[in-house]
Amino acid sequence: MFFDELTPFLQELVRQPVAFVGGFASGLLRLDLGEDPVKSWLNDQGGVSVGNDDNTPPPSDGPTKISID
Questions:
Q1: Structure pTM?
Q2: Which of 1, 26, 53, 69 could cross-link to 31 by cystine, CB 3.0-4.6 Å?
């Protein structure tokens, strides 16, 4: 029963061990991947691009009317 709940984590650990451990450690340390020095380190590693697009609020032109059918 308990093993069934851990199966997805173990599969990811076996598939990509470095990425899994890095993500797990950043989650435990509550690191924000969009802030320095983590962002600059990830950009220096190459192949990984972390942008601030998720921190920028969308432009607001006022209320938007929607219709639900």
A1: 0.41
A2: 26
How is 7-59 classified by DSSP, letter by letter?
A: HHHHHHHHH-HHHHHHHHHHHHTT--TTSTTHHHHHHHHSS----STTTSPPP
Amino acid 47: pLDDT? 53
* pLDDT for res 37: 76
List the chain residues with pLDDT less than 50: none
Apex 14 CA angle, 12 and 15, nearest 5 = 60
Distance CA 47, CA 42 (A): 9
Q: What span, in angstroms and rounded, lies between the C-alpha atoms of 43 and 20?
A: 18
Q: What is the pLDDT of residue 22?
A: 80
